[in-house]
Structure formats: C-alpha cells, structure tokens
Inverse folding.
C-alpha cells in the first residue's frame, strides 16, 4: 500500500510538472533577457560573439535612427585568419550600413568581462558618458550587469538584437537554442559566484 501511494504521488507530481513545463521554460529564458529603451548616446557598441549578423544589423538600425553617430564593433575571435569584428563590418556594409561610421575594436579579449574592461577604458579616454550596448537577447542581462559593474560612472543602455537561434518562447525545441540556454545559465551562475 505504501509503494502504491508513493507511485501515485510521483505520478501526480510528474504530471503537474509536465503540464506547467512551458511557462517554466519560458520564464527561465526570459530571465536572461533584460533590455532598455534606446536613447541618444555617444556611441553604439556592438559586442562580438554573433555569427548570424543580428547584432551588427541591430547596431546599424540604431545608427540609421539617429541614436548615435558611430558604431564600435567588438570581436577579436579569428575565423580562418579573419577577425570576427572585421567580418561583421563587411557584412553590415554589404547590407547598406555606412562603413565610414563603423570602427572595429581589435582588443584581444575572450570574455564579456574582458570586453567590458577594454571598452570601458576606451569610453573613458574619449570622455563619453552614455553608450548603447548591443548584444543578443539571451546575453543582455549578464552583459549589462558586467559592463555597469566595470564602469559604473557610465550609462549603459542595453539593446537586444533578436536572435533567431534563441526564440525565448520555444528555445527548448531546437538543439542550438538548448546549448545557448545551458551555456548562458552556466556563465550567469559563474558570474554570481565570482568566477
């Protein structure tokens, strides 16, 4: 009788979790996304780490809308001997973004924290006060916190580039999205504990 009650209880709990899984999965992804409304700024900073071009194209949209006069493009990872930032610039120019308004940042960085330190130094050198920080939707909360922590005297306005590889409402249905979710949560937890 005791085993039957335990089995029934497990069945009820399992069924309940199954029935509410979608809202839980969506909420876990939505937590990663924290964006601000764009405002006029000194510069648009597009973070590296995007192979689809959505980040740089979002930066170009902000430029065209008059939110800033220049885009800084990060991305020091090399692909077949070419830096990601240079590839992003070429891609954006091929889509009509003015090449003269884009500046590649060739800082040797391999983490969001390293990007925040290098870019924060450049912003301070130019006496900038406000910048738009463009990154993928899943990366907005963590990158915003890191950049604000590194340069608390500067105003970072975080803008999400919608990422077709991470649809918040159904990320668990695609293998690549599941990997993004897992890695971003690992990085978020690592950031919380100071790693």
């Amino acid at each position: 009788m005791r085993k039957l009650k335990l089995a029934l209880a497990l069945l009820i709990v399992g069924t309940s979790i199954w029935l509410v899984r979608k809202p839980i999965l969506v909420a876990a992804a939505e937590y990663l996304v924290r964006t601000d409304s764009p405002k006029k700024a000194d510069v648009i900073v597009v973070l590296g780490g995007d192979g689809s071009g959505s980040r740089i194209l979002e930066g170009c949209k902000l430029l065209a809308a008059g939110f800033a006069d220049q885009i800084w493009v990060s991305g020091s990872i090399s692909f077949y001997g070419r830096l990601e930032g240079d590839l992003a610039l070429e891609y954006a120019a091929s889509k009509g973004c003015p090449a003269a308004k884009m500046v590649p940042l060739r800082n040797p960085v391999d983490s969001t924290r390293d990007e925040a330190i290098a870019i924060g130094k450049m912003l301070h050198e130019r006496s900038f006060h406000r910048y738009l920080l463009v990154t993928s939707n899943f990366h907005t909360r963590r990158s915003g916190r890191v950049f604000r922590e590194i340069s608390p005297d500067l105003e970072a306005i975080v803008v999400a580039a919608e990422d077709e590889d991470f649809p918040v409402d159904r990320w668990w249905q695609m293998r690549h999205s599941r990997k993004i979710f897992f890695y971003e949560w690992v990085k978020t937890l690592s950031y919380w504990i100071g790693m």
Observations:
- The first strand starts at residue 43 and ends at 46.
